[in-house]
Design a protein that fits this description.
Layout: E1 2-13, E2 20-31, H1 37-60, H2 65-68, H3 81-93, H4 98-108, H5 119-131
Antiparallel strand pairs: 1-2
């Protein structure tokens, strides 16, 4: 497993002269070892974009449409790391890029990425990916 650690922070002017407020978010996630350099780079860019959105939401206090999408209610409802790795491995074996997988997930389950899958939806996507034939 590869461990990806990403953080994003932003300082904005505060109400008092010559002061600022800091906002930040960090993410640590394990990724499969068999990701190509291109897949790893795409995954890093996607994750970083999510962190930028999260910091902007902290600053504005407004939740964007993207983060209002259905998410698991608790950690125990979230897809397990084992499920997610297996789903990504199946996709890679069928020449489905991470972006294509996210598009399939959005189309079939209604959430934006594999990270937002609950256990049941991830199981459904695994079943569908096992039947998927690469074009």
């Amino acid at each position: 497993m590869l461990t990806l650690n990403i953080s994003h922070s932003k300082k904005v002017p505060a109400d008092v002269d010559f002061s600022s407020k800091s906002y930040s978010v960090a993410l640590s996630v394990e990724l499969p070892n068999n990701m190509s350099a291109q897949e790893l780079k795409a995954e890093m860019h996607r994750r970083y974009a999510e962190l930028e959105i999260a910091v902007d939401e902290q600053i504005t206090g407004k939740v964007t449409r993207r983060t209002q999408e259905r998410r698991p209610q608790s950690k125990k409802d979230s897809a397990s790391e084992k499920q997610l790795v297996y789903l990504m491995d199946l996709a890679k074996a069928r020449n489905v890029s991470p972006q294509q997988l996210d598009a399939l997930i959005q189309q079939r389950v209604g959430v934006e990425s594999a990270l937002m899958l609950d256990r049941k939806s991830c199981s459904l996507m695994i079943d569908q990916m096992q039947q998927y034939k690469a074009a």
